[in-house]
Amino acid sequence: MEDVCKKNQASCSCQTAQTITLFMNILTFDVEEWALAKAGGYGSAEKYAEYDAFLNQILDLLDSRGIKATCFCTGLMAKDFPQVVKLIWCRGHEIGCHSNQHTWMNKMTEAEAREDTHAAVTALEQCIGQKVLSYRAPAFSIGDSNKWMFEILANEGIQNDSSVFPAARDFGGFPAFQSQVPCTIKYAGIELKEYPISMTSFMGKQVAYSGGGYFRFFPLSFVCGRMAKSEYTMCYFHINDLLPEKGGVPSKAEYEEYYKEAGTLKNRYMRYIKTNLGKSGAWNKLEKLIKKEAFIKINQANESIDWANSPIVKL
Ligand SMILES: [Zn+2]
Fold it and tell me: What is the mean pLDDT of residues 190-214?
């Protein structure tokens, strides 16, 4: 496994110079399902095997196109399911950090966020034996109220962040953020490269289109049309976005435990609809997207961007 791992990691970095053009599509996955199932009490050997099989299906699809992605994994994935994180790493993809337990960062105090980030980065680095350089907060939960997260990330040695959703959204967003393309954040004496989520104008609103529920909602032709017009597109997926199985409406207690807000009937049904919208055709759509477009991972993008002439965002 070690040899295959070294070979895959080495070969992907040499592709960088050839594959990058002015237009850049970055492919990312957030990997958390196994650990969430375990913590939520619905984990089972069958459930984990289902996730394993689906992950392999994704990795095979990426291999068929020679595409490497950045996979943001939670710290608990590294602790409780290290074989999953190692498999992704050994197949040449970048391992990034996606918090420790997948609690929204804007629901934590600064001290809790520091502890969570340190635990996650440490677990992931121990798992793959390499420094983790990229980060994404669960539900893009870094905004104006908790921008101290950038200082915490820099102190953990994180160099690239992809947590900024530069528009309003449920559970946060960062509408005041000044860039929709890769930029350098300067805050409290630290610097960090930011890869924001891509936005488009739709019916007078700024919305995402290249990942999660938005990707499931829009026709593929719409997504590809926007990508063709954009110099930079950040695509992001969860395995759960792509599995056809539909979860039930969460109970009041489940909702409040997970989302940390009132589990009213309206909130619970809205979440159910948003979580399940378009799931049945999602895998098919992803397959077509991967076969049609070229993608790179964040550490490949890093090498091709002219950072000296990219926007600087002072917070
Ligand atoms: Zn997530």
Answer: 92
